[in-house]
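chain below, 210 aa
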Amino acid sequence: MKRQPLILGAVLSALLCGAPGAGAQTIERTTPLGVDADGVGGFNAFFGDTFTAGESGRSFTNVFTFSVAGIPFDAAASVTSSFLDSPFTKDLLITGLSLYRFDPATMAVIGNAVSGIDLTGFGTDPVDSWSVTAFNLPIGSYAVRVDGRVVGVAGGSFGGDLAVSPVPEASSWAMLLAGLAGGALTWRRRLAVGQPIKNRPARNPGGRSR
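prediction:
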C-alpha cells in the first residue's frame, strides 16, 4: 500500500521534468522572400518575424529564401531587434545571422555558409544588431538564416533587409577595358599627328590661345 504514493510521485516528477523540454522546442519557420527590383538588375527585400508571450523562453530559427538568376551577384543583409519594457518586456537575443546557397529539392546547404558579424553594442539592453556580406556569388537558390531566443516575457520581434546587386562577368569587364584602352590610344595618336582635340582651343605659333 505504501508503494502507490511512491509510484504516483515518480510519474508526476517525470511529467514535470518533461514539460519544460516540450516548451523549449525550437521554433522553425521558412518563408520565401518577396523581392522588389531595383531597376539596375538587382533587388531589395525586407523580412522579419514576431513572437508571442506563449513562445517566451524558446529558441527560434528563421530561414528566408530567394533565388538569383543571370550573372553572379553581391549580397548584404542586416537584422535588428530592440528592447521594450512597458510594462511587459519584449526582447529577443539574436545569436546568429548567415547566408548560404541550398539545393531546393533537398534543402541541403551547398558549400559553406557565410557567417554574419555581431554588431550589438554594450550597456543596458542594447539593440541586437547583426550584418552579413558576400561577394561574387554564383546563381542559384539562397537563404538568409536568423537564429536566436525569445527572452521577453511578452515575446518580441526582429526585422531585416536584404540587398542584391549583379556583378559584371569577366568578359564584360574585358570589353569595357578594351574600349577605354582604344579611346586612350586614339587620343594619343591625334596628339602625335597634331590634330586638334575636340573642345581643345587652337594655339598660334607663339603659343598663345586665339
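The chain has a mean pLDDT of 83. The two ends are 123 Å apart (CA to CA).
thats it, cya
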